[in-house]
Write a structure and sequence with these properties.
Distance between the termini of chain A: 10 Å
Oligomer: heterodimer
Helix content of chain A: over 70%
Number of helices of chain B: 10
Distance between the termini of chain B: 43 Å
Largest sheet of chain B: none
CATH class of chain B: Mainly Alpha
Shape of chain A: globular
Radius of gyration of chain B: 23 Å
CATH topology of chain B: MetI-like fold
Low-confidence stretches of chain B: 1-18
Structural class of chain B: mainly alpha
Radius of gyration of chain A: 24 Å
CATH class of the largest domain in chain A: Mainly Alpha
Number of domains of chain A: 2
Order of helices and strands of chain A: HHHHHHHHHHHHHHH
Number of helices of chain A: 15
Mean pLDDT of chain A: 85
Structural class of chain A: mainly alpha
Low-confidence stretches of chain A: 313-318
Number of domains of chain B: 1
């Protein structure tokens, strides 16, 4: 166990280091002068030189990386150029919005996928199964911003029951927050649920063919009990991995959804940073998101080995 | 009368898309053929000029002259959608081809030589996979000047790990087979074995997923162009058209749902037909 933890820790540090390097190189190997790009063609040589110094662009690449990494490790991602706000503060301040969106979307996706996936595995080829697969296919084929636009069109513009854009913080007004977050969370959840549903369905169909299910049926257990208490757990292993891996897909979707609904989250910060040429903000957000994603995946790996005894036994033997 | 609880039958095979859709699979295939033909020969079709503005005829509803109405600058939505779809298809096919070529080559080398090369290649893949794909694409696009080629390359890079994994896994098992051993025994060199013996056997497993990947790539391009990070204007893109006309959603829904329909039908068709291709070539159940 200790050896395994050490190995896992070593890999994790290696990957995080690589993530920081890639993030840095992305910005610093890009063609063109960042200072010139920020100030525009009309800037004087003097102001460009000052800005280059302020951005730390006047030292060699390796030293620049080490300076930046040193800052990152001590929680200093630099300052945003226009807002004069530390980049880390800007990210941390907006992260709760994104986190609420991501977690909400996962809950919605699983709340739809679990019952539908279980039922369609229990009654494959039924009308309900075919309908569910058709709906899933339609959602898989719709880009997230399009799902959002359709929801806005129906619920905000036609029915007028929910706001199309805007955000109320969770701490300020619980109902207001709920109303502004319903459509964004639904958008992302609907984008995600077909993948979970189809995966659970096909795994569950395989589980239901196994002998212990036959035994449970022979004993005379009711179907719902067989499905929920006996078949679900062994069928949900790959689902758990995919829920973790898909965090990356979901973060990408969250960027789009935040822009579409005007939510002040990390994705919005990233896109604003790009439009305003705030390179340090962009660099900070990309690093933050990369690290967050790596940590989530490591956590999922750990959870997976806790849930699946076979993986656990294997790791003891080796 | 009591209704007995019907129990799940003993052998439940997953439903094949063919059984579900039956002959209906020809409809999406036909859409793809028509879409590709229309985008290739867009210039020859008797359609209104997609770039011509008419500021007195903005946001007109669909009519005989403008099948999907006009946008906020009075341009024809239908012909703009076709030109936009061309970008989607070029990026979709181009980026998957890029990912397939590079990922396939890396996986082939990785699985054949193993050892240190394998370790390095898989380390690089791990790092690429350490970023949420769309965020990585957004980051790269934001630092460089957006262009068609860049969009293809950036989205293509995101497909490299998936294709590399398929190629590597297949190569690992192919290397153990007798015909490779025989090739070695008669003194064939590594490069020859890779190209003549192993590569032909990788075509089917790699091609199996490529059509489904094209659908994913088109969604990716749509997301980038929605954020204004794909091919720059005046070139119309479906995502860009939707983003630009979003404000007119209530007054002129056709200006948004026109390009959205093109996008949806194309991705849906690719998914349905791609699913068939994948089953025929790979035989295993798609994990989406």
């Amino acid at each position: 166990m200790l050896r395994r933890s050490l190995r896992l820790g070593g890999t994790l540090v290696g990957i995080l280091f690589a993530v920081s390097l890639i993030t840095f190189l992305l910005m610093n190997l890009a063609p063109g002068d960042a200072a010139l790009a920020i100030l525009g063609e009309t800037a004087t040589a003097e102001s460009i030189a000052t800005l280059r110094q302020r951005l730390g662009l006047d030292v060699p690449l390796l030293q620049r990386y080490l300076n930046w990494l040193g800052g990152v490790l001590t929680g200093d991602l630099g300052e945003s150029f226009r807002a004069n706000e530390p980049v880390l503060d800007a990210i941390v301040g907006r992260f709760p919005v994104t986190l609420q969106l991501l977690l909400g979307a996962q809950v919605v996706a699983l709340a739809l996928a679990l019952p539908i996936g279980i039922y369609t595995a229990y009654r494959p080829r039924s009308l309900a199964d075919k309908t569910a697969l058709g709906v899933a296919l339609a959602f898989v084929s719709t880009p997230p911003f399009l799902i959002g636009i359709i929801l806005i069109y129906v619920f905000a513009l036609q029915l007028g029951v929910l706001p199309a854009t805007g955000y109320v913080p969770l701490g300020e007004d619980l109902v207001g927050n709920f109303l502004t977050m319903v459509l964004p969370i639904a958008t992302l959840g609907l984008f995600e649920f077909p993948i979970y549903m189809r995966l659970l369905r096909s795994d569950m169909i395989q589980t239901l063919q196994q002998n212990f299910i036959l035994l449970a049926r022979a004993i005379g257990l009711p179907p719902w009990r067989i499905l929920i208490t006996h078949a679900l757990r062994p069928s949900s292993l790959s689902l758990i991995t995919v829920v973790g891996i898909n965090m990356g897909r979901l973060i990408g979707g969250a960027v789009i959804v935040e822009v579409l609904f005007g939510l002040p989250g990390v994705g919005q910060l990233l896109v604003d940073g790009i439009y305003q040429r705030e390179y340090l903000v962009v660099q900070g957000v990309v690093l933050f998101v990369g690290v967050f994603f790596v940590l989530i995946n490591t956590l999922v790996d750990l959870l997976y080995s806790m849930l699946d005894p076979r993986v656990r036994v294997d790791s003891i033997r080796h | 009368m009591t209704v007995s609880v019907t129990k799940p039958p003993a052998h439940l095979a997953p439903i094949a898309a063919r059984q579900w859709f039956g002959p209906l699979v020809y409809i999406p295939a036909a859409w793809l053929v028509v879409a590709i033909a229309a985008t290739v020969f867009a210039g020859l079709l008797p359609l209104p000029d997609p770039f011509k503005q008419a500021l007195l005829r903005t946001l007109q509803p669909p009519s005989a002259a403008h099948w999907l109405g006009t946008d906020s600058l009075g341009r024809d939505v239908f012909s703009r959608s076709i030109v936009g779809l061309r970008v989607s298809l070029i990026v979709g096919i181009g980026s998957v081809a890029f990912g397939l070529a590079l990922g396939g080559a890396l996986g082939l080398v990785s699985g054949y030589f193993r050892g240190l090369i394998d370790l390095w290649i898989s380390a690089v893949m791990t790092v690429v996979l350490s970023f949420p794909p769309l965020v990585l694409a957004i980051a790269i696009m934001s630092y460089a000047q957006p262009s068609l080629v860049l969009v293809i390359v950036v989205l293509g890079i995101l497909f490299v790990p998936a294709f590399a994994r398929i190629a590597r896994a297949n190569t690992l098992s192919l290397v153990e087979r007798e015909f490779v051993l025989a090739a070695r025994a008669i003194g064939m060199r590594d490069g020859f074995i890779l190209l003549r013996e192993i590569l032909p056997n990788l075509v089917a497993p790699l091609a199996a997923y490529s059509m489904l990947m094209v659908a994913v790539a088109i969604i990716g391009e749509a997301a980038l162009s929605f954020l204004g990070l794909s091919v720059p204007p005046p070139q119309p893109t479906l995502g860009g058209m939707i983003a630009a006309e979003r404000a007119n959603l209530l007054d002129a829904p056709w200006s948004v749902f026109g390009p959205a329909g093109f996008l949806f039908l194309t991705i849906l068709s690719l998914n349905i037909v791609g699913d068939q291709v994948q089953r025929r070539l790979d035989g295993r159940e798609a994990a989406i």
